[in-house]
Amino acid sequence: MWKQVVEMSFLQRGVIELALLAFVIGVCVGCTVTRDEIVGGYQLQYEFGTERLLLSADGTYEQAFERSGASKELNKGRWELRVNGDQTVVLHNPMLVADPFGKARPAPLRESGVALLKVKKWLGTVSLILNESQGLRFEKRA
């Protein structure tokens, strides 16, 4: 009797572990994102305003920031997809609306460098990570 109970619990544990592994594999299948999947509109909501990013198939982008109760700031530039283990969207000459901690800048800063956005795909939804530890990510809009 005891042997059957122990064997049954090991069997149940094995089934649960197998199901969990299948779930993780199923979620990560297709974790690599194609350029076509990345192209499109994204939005990042801050406490102080909304930033929108439109990545076009021709390698250009449009960036707009609207501070709560203020006018809209616009920026345009080029973007590219880099793959070095991780996939990264590189924005050339971006407009920076927040500091590295997600706090508002007094005025958007036009940078003559690059911004690196790590590409993530979770349950079919593409996100561009600005600062993972601060939870700052552009979510793709449908």
What does this structure look like?
The chain is an alpha+beta fold and 142 residues long. The protein has two domains: 1-30; 35-140, Lipocalin. It contains two helices and ten strands. The strands form two sheets. Strands 1-2-3-4-5-8-9-10 form an eight-stranded antiparallel barrel. The longest helix has 27 residues, at 2-28. It is globular, with a radius of gyration of 21 Å. It starts with a helix and ends with a strand. The model is unreliable at 19-30 (pLDDT under 50).
Give the SSE string. HHEEEEEEEEEE
State the secondary-structure class: alpha+beta
| Cα radius of gyration in angstroms | 21 Å
- Overall body shape: globular
CATH class category label of the largest domain: Mainly Beta
Low-confidence stretches: 19-30
Arrangement of strands in the largest sheet: 1-2-3-4-5-8-9-10
Q: Helical element count?
A: 2
Can you summarize the main beta sheet?
8 strands, antiparallel, barrel
- How confident is the prediction overall: mean pLDDT? 84
Strand residue percentage:
over 45%
Number of strands: 10
Could you give the distance between the termini?
57 Å
Helix content: 10-25%
The CATH architecture of the largest domain is: Beta Barrel
